[in-house]
Amino acid sequence: MSNRRLRACLTAAATAAVLTACGGDDAARTNHLGFEDGVAPAESLTLFEGLAIYLLAPAAILLLIAALVWLPGMVRSSRYRPGRGWGAAPLWFGGPPDPAAAVESASTGDLVRGGASGDW
Amino acid sequence: MATGDGLDPRQQERIESAVERARSENGLDVSVLVGDLELDDLSQFRPAAEKLHAALGDRSPAAVLVVVAPGQRRVEVVTGPLVRRRVPDRVSALAVLSMTSAFRGGDLVGGIVDAVRQIADSAGRRTALSPADEKRGELATRADSDHGTRGVH
Hints:
A: mainly alpha, 3 helices, elongated, B: three-stranded mixed sheet, 4 helices, 14% strand
């Protein structure tokens, strides 16, 4: 029994000693680097530095990401959009050498043509 | 231009090479017209497309013409009587179907190229035709015709 009590006393003493060493008294309010706890050793930010770090930098990153998202779409602006109309002149790939004249002089005749139609 | 910017050179090249492949690998005379037709009434689209097919002259009976009007949102495949065996209407209808679904999604060139490929594949292989005289022709504005095609306004 006394053995157990002695061990409890020793533990309590050791704990108290460690706590004291860790800065229980006023003189030990500074940490091992010499600064008071909770205080940064640097000078405070100026207004411009604050704005640059907390507003300009995030805004720049956002703009960069937005640009990366939008640019490919801008480059492919020739994409066809249904319903927007089509202003370009007709192009005939593999057509007659002089399409306008050929259409002018063409007559459907009595050929029976096949094929299919569709709309969208 | 406020509306549709037309096809850029790379897109034109893709359509051209699809047409050339059909001629050289399948011996099939395919031509593709991309542009709106000048019509009073869209019900005239089929006759106008047949007239364009007739404008192919001597080639007409054995030619396949694909007319795509992006502004009018109409597509027409016209086949001459001599190729109707190789390109039956069923095949044309499938090509039209794949084109309209591609066009609805905004993929004009991809739809055209795939449809030409589809038609050519189903037509099988024959001896190659000589390359088309004119790879790419631009139709001038013609206000005096019912079935003509429309230029830039």
